[in-house]
Design brief:
Layout: H1 17-23, H2 26-29, H3 33-49, H4 55-74, H5 86-98, H6 111-147, E1 152-157, E2 160-166, H7 167-192, E3 194-195, H8 211-217, E4 222-223, H9 227-232, H10 235-261, E5 269-270, H11 289-312, H12 327-350, E6 352-353, H13 355-363, H14 369-378, H15 383-400, H16 409-415, H17 423-426, H18 429-434, H19 444-460
Parallel strand pairs: 3-4
Antiparallel strand pairs: 1-2, 5-6
Helix pairs in contact: 3-4, 3-6, 3-8, 4-5, 6-7, 6-12, 6-19, 7-10, 7-19, 10-11, 10-12, 11-12, 14-15
This protein binds arginine.
Length: 461
């Protein structure tokens, strides 16, 4: 049952138990207690400095808030069924502890700008944690790519074997991917880095609040310019969760690939026992459950994004209670994405890649056919004709169940008399990789350059 609410002055009847339970949010927003207290401390210090309340009162409130923080930290804070949300719970406790002076804390402030502030502060630390989890995953990928600088694998298009590439190059593609995620998060943090406090309910307030000093005390680079925007904007939350969705989409791509690679059919990777599970009925099974769960949780984070977009859709300005519903999807997306990045880093770090198996799948599938065509082009044949001739040679190899480089020179010459003995260099997968001349290609030198780039970058972040 609700205690007499701090906002209940104009009401003759208390909220019904059903209405109170329906609207209370403390079970979710209690997570924001640190942010809430940090915001209140900065606010009350400014109230004192501006002589809006006396310094003695400001100090009393400051001490009260700090001791409440200790209670919350130690678990001594008594969360009860009468509490509506974390803002009111802390304020009520403050009044309980220091008496009516506690009631001065909320001068010039509304829960509307208070919750907006708490969420921006939460976003800041959530982004820091996500970025460091991204770095750990990038490091795991980078370490594997250093180990596999000479491991050749089939590169794929349409999930059909296409051309030989270095496993290292393949893994570094993921490092680049997560590099963009990291950049997106940094940009999101920058945009969110403004204090909404001082907007009060929506219109600002007649107290001479010093918004800038509160903002800088809380480490923001400035204040939100428009008070209506300050209390009604949740863009940064939607941005963060959409970045989380993109991260999960990336994770689900690696996950899917690992699931495929761990099959007997591929046999490219063996996942460590420490991240694999068994079957309760089939004793021989070793399942890639971590990767599957990451793939599955991707759907959940997309759901969070859609919840948020739908909650905010068509909301008139400024604050509406609908917005209270933003926290569950926000917290869930951050927690899920963080955990998924963490487990994927562990999976990658403990993977054993099967170089021999990768190598042997190159031989059987004419992966150097493009090199053969390029060879003919270098000898003067237009690329289209070279493609045609090469296609015929591949057809011959298929029909005779023989690798391209095992075809006799005399036979090759029947397809084109431009072909000489040096053709066999082009048909060697290792040579094919070495011959790549473009920047960003799979040649060993270019891959080494990427490794250097990321090593430096990850070190300095
Ligand atoms: N629990 C509320 C939320 O998260 C706090 C703001 C409530 N403001 C109000 N005017 N009812 O959105």
């Amino acid at each position: 049952m609700a205690k007499k609410a701090l906002w209940s002055g104009r009401f003759r009847e208390p909220l019904s138990p059903a209405a109170f339970n329906f609207s209370r949010s403390i079970n979710v927003d209690e997570l924001l207690w640190r942010e809430d207290i940090a915001g209140s401390l900065a606010h009350v210090e400014m109230l004192g400095a501006q002589q809006i309340i006396s310094n003695t009162d400001a100090e009393k409130i400051n001490r009260g808030l700090k001791s409440i923080a200790k209670e919350l930290e130690s678990g001594a804070f008594n969360f009860t069924d009468e509490m509506e949300d974390i803002h009111l719970a802390i304020e009520q406790r403050l009044i309980e502890k220091i008496g009516p002076t506690g009631g001065k804390l909320h001068t010039g402030r509304s829960r509307n700008d208070q919750v907006a502030l708490d969420e921006r502060l939460y976003l800041r630390s959530a982004i820091d944690e996500l970025r460091s989890a991204i770095r750990k995953l990038q490091t795991a990928l980078l370490d594997q790519s250093k180990t596999h600088l000479t491991t050749i694998m089939p590169g794929y298009t349409h999930l059909q074997r296409a051309q030989p590439v270095l496993l290292s190059h393949h893994l570094l593609a993921y490092v680049s991917m997560f590099g963009r995620d990291d950049e997106r998060l940094a940009e999101c943090a920058h945009r969110a880095d403004l204090s909404p406090l001082g907007a009060a309910a929506l219109a600002g307030t007649s107290y001479p609040l010093d918004r800038e000093s509160v903002a800088s005390a809380l480490g923001f680079r400035g204040v939100v310019m428009n008070s209506i925007d300050a209390v009604s904007d949740r863009d940064h939350i939607i941005e963060l969760v959409s970045h989380c969705s993109i991260i999960m989409m990336h994770l689900s791509r690696i996950a899917e690939e690992l699931i495929l690679w761990a099959t007997r059919e591929f046999g490219f990777v063996t996942m460590s026992d420490s991240v694999s599970t068994g079957s309760s009925i089939m004793p021989q099974k070793k399942n890639p459950d971590m990767a599957e769960l990451v793939r599955g949780k991707t759907g959940r984070v997309y759901g969070d994004l859609f919840s948020l977009l739908t909650i905010m859709k068509a909301l008139p300005l400024a604050y509406n209670r609908d917005m209270q519903e933003d926290k569950e999807p926000l917290f869930d997306a951050v927690k899920t994405t963080h955990a998924s990045l963490g487990i994927m880093a562990e999976v990658i770090a403990t993977n054993t890649y099967n170089a021999a198996r990768m190598q042997s799948s190159i031989e059987s599938d004419h992966l150097t056919a493009t090199e053969l065509a390029d060879y003919l082009v270098r000898k003067g044949l237009p690329f289209r004709n070279a493609h045609e001739v090469t296609g015929k040679i591949v057809g011959y190899a298929e029909a005779n169940n023989i690798a391209l480089r095992a075809i006799d020179l005399k036979v090759l010459k029947t397809f084109s008399d431009l072909i000489e003995k040096d053709i066999y260099d082009s048909l060697d997968p290792e040579r094919s990789i070495a011959m790549k001349a473009t920047s960003g290609s799979t040649s060993v030198n270019e891959v080494k350059r990427q490794i250097k780039h990321w090593q430096k970058k990850l070190l300095h972040q």
